[in-house]
Amino acid sequence: MLPILYDPTEKMNKLEKRYADYLYLQQLNKEIISYRFHPFKLILASKTTYEIDFFVIYQDRFEIHETKGFMRDDAAVKLKVAASMFPFWNFKLVKWDRKKGWDIKEVQK
Fold it and tell me: Which ranges of 1-109 would DSSP assign to H, the alpha helix?
């Protein structure tokens, strides 16, 4: 049995929980190595941080996955700034589409 890969005391919203379940299945199928929920914050500027939702570990790369039901302006700016400041990681915006399933798009740097 695989260990729990997020702190169960950390509160996830419904979308984050659904995506954690999806990532867990990807791990079982060996599509990803591992993932972590809210593992750390990135410092973007003085008194400005960005707490990532999921840090996803693939065989050949690391990715930051941000889950959003809807995107506020400040969150969109932080995500784009983080993607440009940390170009060695791929940043993905993850949304749930009831008809198509997971909609995962690369954040432009």
Answer: 14-28, 73-85
DSSP lists the bridge partners of residue 95 as 103
8 vs 35: which has the higher pLDDT: 35
Q: What is the DSSP letter of 43?
A: E
Q: Give the type of residue at 87.
A: P
3-class SS string, 40-89: CEEEEECCEEEECCEEEECCCCEEEEEECCCCCHHHHHHHHHHHHHCCCC
Contact in structure between 53 and 38 (CB atoms under 8 Å): yes
Residue 108 pLDDT class (50, 70, 90 cuts): confident
Question: Residue 33 in contact with residue 57, Cβ under 8 Å?
Answer: yes
Domains in the chain: boundaries: 35-106
Interstrand relation of 41-45 and 90-97 (parallel, antiparallel or unpaired): unpaired
Pull the structure tokens for residue 16.
């984050």
Residues 64 and 51 sit within 8 Å (Cβ to Cβ) = no
User: How is residue 51 written in tokens?
Assistant: 């707490």
